[in-house]
């Protein structure tokens, strides 16, 4: 099989603008699939790696982990995929054989892309080169490229009729927020919920709370422009913490007779994580960390947990990825979950820096990059 030369947006170093480059994409090896990427979303986790993360070793890389595409070719030993299949790359794999995959309590997988090797697939090599340098594959996926190579344990085959420029969102943000509410928090009918941060992840969490039957959903964000969208997904009350001269957890406690049943932090800020926990009702309140950060410790008073609250975290919404993503695509196509409403902008791969800037400045929910036809 041949090496493919194609366009990709390369992040040569942290904080710098991405550069459009011609890269070489090697043929898929044993168990791997080469995918023609059709569309991709831009997620805050891409920005986190580029601007906020402490580990600067994961460069140069091709970012993007919220994509969808079509199988171009398959490596030896791949039997479940064939050229032409529609697929969604998974930043969280499901090998089906490790102790985590076999356990129903978790969606982790021991064979996931390894931070040990810095953002490549599950082995220490990459299939990308550019200007004779190896280029890492961010979160094992790299969807800001016309072609990528991914291990079959990190690819979901989806419905032939699925619109790729929309279902790509199920590769990360929407599955993450939705699952955090319905799986990790386990939102119950009639409950009162609060979602902190109303990006795509938070809005999907609002949608999850609504679908699980919550009776009241507080949408909390410092950017009030997000409130209108939150209403579309089922939020009933809207709070800007900056508009109050006391902690928002106290405001929520007063409005709910002691605190909410479920809170979800979808910002990636340790102070907000603490606030979300403090906003829960004692006795049974559950607070879920969804926002992504690994740069500093968080703190809380022990009495928060001693009083009977539960603090937990959620990766990819607790969904076992390969099993669940095809079902979520069906849920979209049958109208059980929304996707179109998250899309506020559409751009080309060449405009990726503009798309990143839109998210950085809070002007978009999701910008879809059309990568190829
Ligand atoms: P986004 O930037 O679109 O949304 C973040 C929102 O938080 C914005 O609306 C912003 O105004 C709001 N915000 C900022 N500071 C706030 C504060 N102090 N109080 C209340 N709201 C505040 O990001 P996104 O793409 O929706 O991602 C959200 C988070 O989820 C990120 O941290 C991302 O890395 C993380 N994430 C986690 C997983 C996972 O598996 N756990 C997966 C995907 C993304
Ligand atoms: Zn993401």
How would you describe the overall organization of this protein?
It is built from 10 helices and 18 strands. With 373 residues, it is α/β, with parallel strands linked by helices. The chain has 2 domains: 4-171 and 338-370, Alpha-Beta Complex (Quinone Oxidoreductase, Chain A, domain 1), CATH 3.90.180; 177-314, NAD(P)-binding Rossmann-like Domain (Rossmann fold). The two termini are 22 Å apart. The mean pLDDT is 95. Bound molecules: nicotinamide-adenine-dinucleotide (NAD) and zinc ion. Zinc ion (ZN) binds next to loops. Its cofactor is Zn(2+). Residues 13-369 form the Enoyl reductase (ER) domain.
> What is the number of helices?
10
> Main β-sheet, in a few words?
7 strands, mixed
Q: Quickly give the structural class.
A: alpha/beta
The percent of residues in helical segments reads: 10-25%
Q: What is the number of strand segments? A: 18
- Broad shape: globular
By CATH, the topology of the largest domain is Quinone Oxidoreductase, Chain A, domain 1
- The CATH superfamily of the largest domain bears the name Medium-chain alcohol dehydrogenases, catalytic domain
Number of domains: 2
Bound molecules: nicotinamide-adenine-dinucleotide, zinc ion
CATH architecture of the largest domain: Alpha-Beta Complex
Radius of gyration over all CA atoms, rounded: 20 Å
> What low-confidence regions span 5 or more consecutive residues with pLDDT below 50?
none
Q: Return the average pLDDT rounded to an integer.
A: 95
CA distance, first residue to last residue? 22 Å
- Classified by CATH, the class of the largest domain is Alpha Beta
- Pattern of helices and strands: EEEHEEEEEEEHHEHEHEHEHEHEHEHE
Strand content: 15-25%
